[in-house]
Amino acid sequence: MTHTQYIVDGNGKRVSVVLPVKEYESMLDKLEELEDIRVYDEVKAKNEKSILLEDYIMSRKKYVNSN
């Protein structure tokens, strides 16, 4: 991690952070991964029956074709 730089207002209060692009992109990747884990845990907790993706796609095609 590099030295963190701050932008401050007239009172010296920190209002923004300056990050290298690589560090920013790394943070975004980690946040996205955490969100994926959160959604997985949420779905898993529902304990619903799962189906194969191919079966779901076929059922959607049948539904669309019947309308």
Commentary on this structure:
By secondary structure, this protein is of the alpha+beta class. It has one domain. The protein is built from 2 helices and 2 strands. A two-stranded antiparallel sheet has the order 1-2. The longest helix is centred in the middle third of the chain and has 26 residues. The mean pLDDT is 92.
Q: What is the element layout, followed by pairings?
A:
Blueprint: E1 5-8, E2 14-18, H1 21-46, H2 53-66
Largest sheet: 2 strands, antiparallel
Please state the structural category: alpha+beta
Count of spatially separate domains: 1
Order of strands, widest sheet = 1-2
Number of helices: 2
Pick out its properties:
single chain; 67 residues; alpha+beta; two-stranded antiparallel ribbon; 2 helices; 2 strands
Could you give a short description of this structure?
The protein is α+β, with helices and mostly antiparallel strands.
